[in-house]
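QA checklist item 7 of 12: single-chain prediction sanity check.
[x] sequence parsed
[x] length recorded as 197
[x] structure emitted
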Amino acid sequence: MPLTTSASSIDLSVDKRSVNPVTLRQCIFRISMKIWRLLPFVFICQLGLAQTPDQGLSNDPVFNTILKRRIKYPRDAEWVGKYMRIFAEFTVGEKGRVENIAILNQSPTGVHLGFEPMVVTALKKLPSLNLRYKGSYILPVSFIYVDYRHKDKPYVPTDTLFIDELRGRVVLKEINVFGSSVNSRERVLAADDNRAY
């Protein structure tokens, strides 16, 4: 049995006194004027937020400057033409000191050529950091080798970490350290023999 409704049960009439076209236009105009008054304030707030620096440890000028000055390409690795990425784990303690320094991707080559000791030593020599940086971090350091004898091609390391090793730690921005074949053993030996390399 189909459902039917009668026209008398549904009231579709509109009370003409409730909708006044002039008042509707005035309301829309008033609302748009309020929005236009707020736009400069919203723009200034957004501009202010965009200019506030990130408060992370990666953007701390003391941290970055000291590490970039202290981490140098190891001479032995430069002579052999080796390159590597080191992932150093460390903790900023309650007093702002760098503690519990460890290399996550240890290798005999990294220790022998001086990559890992260079990073560990630089982290140990950091001054006390701001207490707001308290926590666990991973610092990736790429030792990039540029061979000027072969069309200036940089050899960039591709070492990575597993996701499980990142758990509970903040990964900082990578620090790039460049080494080159210009200071290589051939140049030193050539200078000793007084010949071109």
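[x] summary fact logged: The two ends are 102 Å apart (CA to CA).
[ ] second reviewer sign-off
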